[in-house]
Amino acid sequence: MESAPAIQKLLDELERMPGIGPKSAQRIAYWMLNSDRGTVLRLADAIVEVKNTVHFCSRCFNYAEGEVCEICASSRRNAAILCVVSEPRDIAAIERTAAFSGLYHVLGGVLSPMDGVGPDDLHIAELLQRLADDTVEEVVLATNPNVEGETTAAYLARLIKPLGLKVTRLASGLPVGGDLEFADEVTLGRAIESRRAL
Amino acid sequence: MESAPAIQKLLDELERMPGIGPKSAQRIAYWMLNSDRGTVLRLADAIVEVKNTVHFCSRCFNYAEGEVCEICASSRRNAAILCVVSEPRDIAAIERTAAFSGLYHVLGGVLSPMDGVGPDDLHIAELLQRLADDTVEEVVLATNPNVEGETTAAYLARLIKPLGLKVTRLASGLPVGGDLEFADEVTLGRAIESRRAL
């Protein structure tokens, strides 16, 4: 081996990261070798800190540093609308839109018989418990618009509708700024079905 | 902010890495949050270890963990051929070819009047010192085939040739597996000039 063992070890660990192949790992490793100590150790510290301080919110299962996450702890959120998502990263995506001011509930996955994921493997019992106290008026089912996400949304809708709550689903259609010509048939079909009156 | 502060800090630090934008940083951060503690802390340790143990080889200025790098320390390398490169990463590239068994010397850059890099900013004095003991018979100038690399190679050739050593340069030409049609004119022109008898 031509590399120093510490460099080889770093390359091996960097390549475990998603989207990082051997070339990117090498580029990052050389950046670390060339950068000043402070910059590089700050990154290592940030990694350790995240693993030490971040866990799941006891209420919504988002990532949190305290007992509950910052969204659950905020007094400015509308507790009457609850948005159900599959993963914490979906919360980050929705928050970036600034179009939603309600609370969230993270399922921790989607129903997937193929992968052996059933209702008991998701935070569905905890969701029903949150709906029991009459605070929530609308549940937005924001699982992904794919087979498993739709199945999960349909399953949840069947459970929640009998509670007398409004159940909604994110709209499917053409991406804004997109092009009819390049839309796939399913998306375009959905956009036609869900056309709005002007 | 919707993210926990520790996550936001991690995202900021990840985005400093070369080739990592906000989307990649987020993907990596979520991977770190979801992966088991051991995997993630091993990466943080590898980063710290590289900054603590890796420095420059006292002989060739490659990265090294000991006083000299593994290549300089090896008894299986041919000390009669010295390959001069700009950066340690060039050594890694040449080693991967397994086509060179000599030793290296890292300049630590290339001559660049525009960036204020002159001969005294590179490890040229140390190179000449290494050539003084008559061990080296050939110096391969392996700086990049661009303006600054060629200038640096020409400068070094003028210094080294009077010492009576053989001075060579890496061949320029068509990439193996490449296509005449897609070669740039300069490369194709160089390939024609340097054509070999068959």
Name the descriptors.
198 residues, 8 helices, alpha/beta, homodimer, four-stranded parallel sheet, 43% helix, two-stranded antiparallel ribbon
Provide an overview of this structure:
The structure is a homodimer of 198-residue chains. Chain A is of the alpha/beta class and 198 residues long. Helices cover 43% and strands 13% of the residues of chain A. Chain A has 8 helices and 6 strands. In chain A, the strands form 2 sheets. The first copy, chain A, has a 4-stranded parallel beta sheet. A two-stranded antiparallel sheet of chain A has the order 1-2. In chain A, helix 1 crosses helix 2. Chain A is globular and about 65 Å long. The termini of chain A are far apart. The model of chain A has no long low-confidence stretch (mean pLDDT 91). At the A-B interface, helix 1, helix 2, helix 3, strand 2 and helix 5 of A face helix 1, helix 2, helix 3, strand 2 and helix 5 of B.
Structural class of chain A: alpha/beta
Count of DSSP H/I helices of chain A: 8
**Greatest interface (CB-CB under 8 A), with counts per chain:** A-B, 54 and 54 residues
Q: What global shape of chain A is seen?
A: globular
Mean pLDDT of chain A: 91
Amino-to-carboxy terminus distance of chain A = 68 Å
Looking at how many chains there are and whether they match, the oligomeric state comes to homodimer
Backbone CA Rg of chain A: 22 Å
Q: Outline the low-pLDDT stretches of chain A.
A: none
Order of helices and strands of chain A: HHHEEHEHEHEHEH
The total beta strand count of chain A reads: 6
Q: If strands are numbered along the chain, what order do they take across the biggest sheet of chain A?
A: 4-3-5-6
